[in-house]
Amino acid sequence: MTDSATLASVVIFGVLLGGVYAAMAYGLGLIYGVMRIVNLAHGAVLMLAAYAAYALNTRFGLDPLVASIVIVPISYGIGMLLYSVLVRRVVHGPPMASLLLLFGVGLVGRNIAYLIWTGDDRSIALSYNLTTVDLGVPVPVTKLVIFGFALAGTAALYAFLHWTHTGRAMRAVARDPVAAELAGLSADRISARAFGVGTALAAFAGVLLSMLYVINPEFGSALQLKTFCIIVLGGMDSIGGILAGALTLGLAETAAGVYGGTAWQDLVSFILLVGILVTRPGGLPSFFRR
Amino acid sequence: MFRLFVVLFAVGIAGCGGPATPAVLNEIILGATLPLTGKESRAGLYFKNGYTLAVDEINAAGGVMIQSVGRKLPIKLEIVDDKSDSMTAVQLAEHLITVRGIHALLGTYETKLVLAQSVVPERHKIPYVTGGGAASEIFKRDFKWVFGLLSSVEAMAATFMDWLAVEQDAGHLARPARIALAWENTAHGQDFRAGTEQRVAAHADRFTLVMNEAFELNSKDFTPLMLKLKAATADVFMSDTHYPDFVLQHKTYLQMGLTHPVVAYGPRGTEADARATLGDGVNYLVSGQWWTQELPYPESRAFVKNYTAKYGDVSSYYPGLAYETARTMIAAIQTAGTIEREPVRQALAAMDRDGAILPGRRVYFPAKTGNQIDNPSVLVQNMPGGTFRIVYPPDAATGAALVPPPR
């Protein structure tokens, strides 16, 4: 297992896994970046969006990527509504208040899933489920698609935050909400939009993940932990950092699985999480800051 | 008037202070907690139906003959929802015993829940039969009141290895066969690993273990495992998985273009959802089942007919195990001829009952396994078109295995 072909496989599959992780983490990173809120309902959003993709696929035969055209805007609206009705009441309070509130929202989401879809495992049957592309090793098309969306998501999110009025306003609120208010921005309205965009990004990730994994109401919980690792690695609020963190984690897990034990994959995530928190709380981007 | 008052008062005092008159026994109450909601709700419903069918059949025949009261008594089933939660399963079992006054307890479903709940009947010294927990960990605690109808995952692994030996003798598989083993890092998986390793050690001339790899439950990427499997150049790939890991693992296996003469994922492989997701990729997988509707035994066929007529779908092992669990408890009460707990426990411990719907058709609880049945599993192989055939044990086989499968 030390030959160059294996090493090439580790790099290819590690980078692809990193793409999956990046897609999962953008929504959480954006919401934290703008509001300094850790969204503990993130996993539930991933899970509910995956179920929505499943429902549209089984009911109307929609491919998840097509279904995302419906799911993502609705999720944006739900995110805005969630902020306006619940989150804005605690956003300026102690961090524990928002943590508990969003934890509760996540539990409600999970129990809604139990009520509608029961605890059964479900998966989406795609005609290209087993289709692969030969890159020296057979690479699943689904993972390539998700990786493509992860890269495109990074570029689009960067462009949105830097080149649009709303995006610049979000960055301004993130940097100094009082100064942003003095400059005529409504921090509350901008935060609501950021929460909406973050929820929509999480929902889009959930749709993509439904192409890979079996879905059940507990589906989001394990992913949420992994997502925390990624945004801590990525420096909590940096879009490029999140991509770097996700790729690092994907490569580290794959290498650990191949050169160590398959059971070490999760262990590596949490060792990296603890290691970064202790030595570099600013995440990977702090290596490049003076 | 005064005398009458004195007499009534005296009778009242006597009634309050004396020993309680034993209540007249009119029915036998079997209690059970089941995961009717939560993540195991599908299995919970199957178990409820299986328990109910067994009780309905006995009641339709007039009930259970209880020698101590000299007549047949009907059975009342008290089932409550433990919400797929271990703590709730424990609390509700306590409630059923101490408040509802049940005479015996039938087990819940899922290893973790049974592991937690089985402490309660042991503490209260009440007979407990479970068909919902297979991990040997449940039965290795020297408990006297807990009886398991689901043979261990270790025994299932041993059944796989015994079948591989049959295929070797038929010239279908290399000897020694190179075995690649993957197991989830849980009590379930560790049992599977133990069963495989024991057979490999005992038959070094037949088997060589070329991969022995653990993975975490609910893993999100099996590419490293499959890269290792590819490098192992094995004849047989055996993995013990829960359903989500099975789908992801086998999807990765197929995407990487791997093939082996034998591929097995423990008890997984026959699920309709897996076929819908992976299509013909599930053809020729071999899986171990604790019970299947295809078993050719007359008792099993009768059960399938009755269950299907009443509840419909019987495509899982759950209803069969539940049905036999309830029948086993009822048989023990009938043998004991009383609802006194110790005689019922002794009847379970000494039980060797024929006519069961399980593989081997016998129900018995060997002391050496801590009162856990150790009958073989049924091995089935998926066939094209969504059908499957029983390939082992020989007395239940409905066709020959295709090893290696046609490509």
Mean pLDDT of chain B: 92
Total helical elements of chain A: 11
| Main pleated sheet of chain B | 5 strands, parallel
Helical/strand content category of chain A: mainly alpha
What is the helix fraction of residues of chain A, given as a range? over 70%
Low-pLDDT residue spans of chain A: none
| Distance between the first and last residues' Cα of chain A | 39 Å
- Rg calculated over all Cα atoms of chain A: 19 Å
The rounded Rg of chain B comes to 24 Å
The overall pLDDT average of chain A reads: 90
Q: Give the low-confidence spans of chain B.
A: 4-22
Q: State the distance separating the first and last CA atoms of chain B.
A: 99 Å
- Biggest sheet strand order of chain A reads 1-2
Strand order in the sheet with the most strands of chain B: 4-1-5-6-7
Number of contiguous helices of chain B: 13
Give the biggest sheet of chain A. 2 strands, antiparallel
Label the overall shape of chain A: globular
Oligomeric description of these chains: heterodimer
Name the largest protein-protein interface in this structure.
A-B, 41 and 40 residues
Topology as H/E string of chain A?
Answer: HHHHEEHHHHHHH
The helix-strand sequence of chain B is HEHEEEHEHHEEHEHEHEHEHEHHHEEEE
Question: What does it look like?
Answer:
The complex is a heterodimer of chains A (290) and B (407). By secondary structure, chain A is an all-alpha fold. Chain A has eleven helices and two strands. Chain A has helices at 4-35, 42-60, 64-85, 95-117, 141-163, 165-175, 177-182, 187-209, 219-233, 239-259, 264-279, and strands at residues 132-134, 138-140. Chain A has a two-stranded antiparallel sheet with strand order 1-2. In chain A, a hairpin with a 3-residue loop joins strand 1 and strand 2. In chain A, helix 2 runs parallel beside helix 4 (95-117), helix 3 packs antiparallel against helix 8 and helix 5 (141-163) crosses helix 6 (165-175). The longest helix of chain A has 32 residues, at 4-35. The radius of gyration of chain A is 19 Å and the shape is globular. The relative contact order of chain A is 0.20. Chain B is of the alpha/beta class. Chain B is 41% helix and 18% strand. Chain B is built from 13 helices and 16 strands. Chain B has helices spanning 2-17, 41-60, 86-98, 111-117, 119-124, 153-169, 187-202, 223-232, 243-255, 272-278, 298-311, 318-336, 341-349; strands at 28-34, 64-66, 71-73, 75-81, 104-106, 128-130, 146-148, 177-184, 207-215, 236-240, 262-264, 286-289, 352-353, 363-364, 378-382, 388-392. Chain B has a five-stranded parallel β-sheet with strand order 4-1-5-6-7, sandwiched between helices. The longest helix of chain B is centred in the N-terminal third of the chain and has 20 residues, at 41-60. The A-B interface holds A 1, 6, 9-10, 13, 17, 20, 114, 118-125, 129-130, 132, 137-138, 140, 212-214, 216-218, 222-223, 226, 253-254, 256-258, 261-263, 265-266 and B 35, 37-42, 84, 182, 185, 213-216, 218-225, 227-228, 231, 243-244, 247-248, 251, 254-257, 273, 276-279, 281.
